[in-house]
């Protein structure tokens, strides 16, 4: 009886084990993963090499902004521009196509758009100087020392003008419009006959230079494309003088000259400045991360070799992008992905750039060059230039901090 009972009990247990339990939790140890997710943090200290800087990508002639700065000990910058007139004759009226000689100008209105300014600078003042009409791309800061000393034609205090009713000066005829959407100021300056001379023998061409001053360090940027001059001229119509308005004329030439010139490149890694500089970093991306892991986060750590100079408004955005091919200074930049950080003037703290997007691209495409280019997002639009320690400085060299997940070891059935 005991043996029969044991056999019966065994049969019941086997039958119970074969019953499908739809509502019960799954129990399949043979199919469960044999490991667990492992997150690894590592610092690549010796994997960045052959890093170097190059200058000259965007010059003052190519910049979209004209920089005016009064930063003692750092830079003195002055925009210069020339407006070409319409010759020595003008039509008598809008309906009479016959022309008469232009006798001169009664007045003119100069429009200047201030695209960037330091709102912390008080008594921000623009000074307008008459310059030789021969200014061109070869004109230097030293060439204009004389005109910027003895040829002042107008002065306008922007803060005072902003504080006036309707932002207009009824005595000088100046006005300013605040474009809050674009964070710009549109200055309209009235120039009298002496300030806006129209000399027919020179086809009416005039040239001006701008200096900026303030109670403290001053730095502003003028929109190159929005410089314009509107003339009211006197025309001789068979002995009768008539007044004519010339079309709005833009600047035929515009640039900015500055002193001292940009410091020469050395062993440090330079980013920004005028003419703009870029840095190329070559990274030996480890195969154990590239082929067998998933990059979660990557951070490039840079240590400035000196504080970044400039006014607070000169802080700039630095981009980190990879290249389509590594040709050194002429490497074509891959614009598909990139990461940015802000470099503030006056500080020397460690700068970090999140480069996760770039390293994930490298991990996804094993044929992609593993080189990084650091550049200012808006090149030659600020004198601020960051200088970082290179890879030959062991204690301060650039490093990469990477967080990644190793390949998951799934179990076998």
What report would you give on this structure?
The protein is mainly beta and 413 residues long. The chain folds into two domains: 39-58 and 275-406, no CATH class; 65-259, no CATH class. Helix content is 9%, strand content 41%. The protein contains five helices and 25 strands. Strands 3, 4, 5, 6, 7, 8, 9, 10, 11, 12, 13, 14, 15 and 16 form a 14-stranded antiparallel β-sheet that branches. Strands 2-18-23-20-21 form a five-stranded antiparallel β-sheet. Strands 1-25-19-22 form a four-stranded antiparallel β-sheet. A hairpin with a 2-residue loop joins strand 13 and strand 14. The mean pLDDT is 88.
Keyword list:
5 helices; mainly beta; 413 residues; 14-stranded antiparallel beta sheet; 9% helix; five-stranded antiparallel beta sheet
């Amino acid at each position: 009886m005991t043996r029969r009972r044991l056999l019966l009990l065994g049969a019941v247990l086997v039958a119970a084990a074969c019953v499908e339990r739809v509502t019960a939790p799954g129990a399949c140890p043979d199919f469960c993963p044999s490991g667990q997710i492992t997150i690894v943090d590592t610092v690549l200290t010796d994997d960045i090499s052959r890093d170097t800087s190059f200058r000259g990508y965007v010059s003052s002639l190519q910049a979209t902004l004209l920089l005016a700065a009064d930063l003692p000990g750092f830079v003195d910058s002055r925009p210069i521009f020339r407006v070409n007139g319409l010759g020595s004759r003008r039509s008598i009226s809008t309906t009479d196509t016959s022309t008469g000689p232009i006798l001169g100008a009664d007045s003119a209105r100069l429009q200047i758009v201030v695209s960037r300014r330091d709102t912390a600078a008080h008594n921000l003042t623009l000074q307008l100087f008459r310059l030789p009409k021969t200014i061109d791309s070869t004109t230097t800061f030293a060439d204009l020392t004389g005109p910027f000393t003895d040829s002042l034609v107008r002065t306008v205090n922007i803060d005072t003008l902003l504080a006036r009713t309707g932002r207009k000066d009824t005595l000088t005829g100046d006005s300013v419009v605040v474009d809050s959407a674009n964070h710009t100021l549109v200055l309209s300056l009235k120039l009298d006959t002496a300030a806006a001379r129209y000399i027919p023998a020179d086809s009416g061409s005039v040239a001006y230079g701008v200096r900026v001053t303030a109670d403290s360090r001053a730095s502003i940027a003028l929109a190159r494309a929005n410089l314009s001059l509107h003339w009211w001229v006197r025309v001789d119509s068979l002995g009768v003088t008539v007044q004519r308005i010339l079309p709005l004329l833009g600047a035929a030439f515009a640039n900015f000259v500055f002193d001292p010139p940009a410091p020469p490149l050395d062993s440090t890694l330079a980013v920004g400045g005028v003419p703009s500089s870029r840095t190329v970093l070559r990274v030996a991306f480890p195969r154990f991360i590239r082929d067998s892991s998933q990059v979660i986060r990557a951070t490039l750590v840079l240590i400035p070799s000196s504080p970044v100079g400039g006014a607070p408004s000169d802080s700039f955005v630095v981009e980190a992008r990879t290249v389509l091919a590594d040709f050194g200074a002429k490497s074509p930049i891959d614009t598909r992905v990139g990461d940015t950080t802000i470099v503030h003037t006056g500080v020397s703290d460690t700068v970090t750039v999140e480069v996760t997007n770039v390293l994930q691209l490298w991990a996804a495409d094993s044929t992609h060059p593993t080189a990084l280019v650091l550049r200012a997002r808006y090149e030659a639009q600020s004198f601020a230039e960051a200088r970082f320690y290179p890879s030959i400085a062991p204690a301060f060299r650039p490093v990469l901090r990477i967080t990644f997940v190793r390949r998951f070891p799934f179990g076998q059935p």
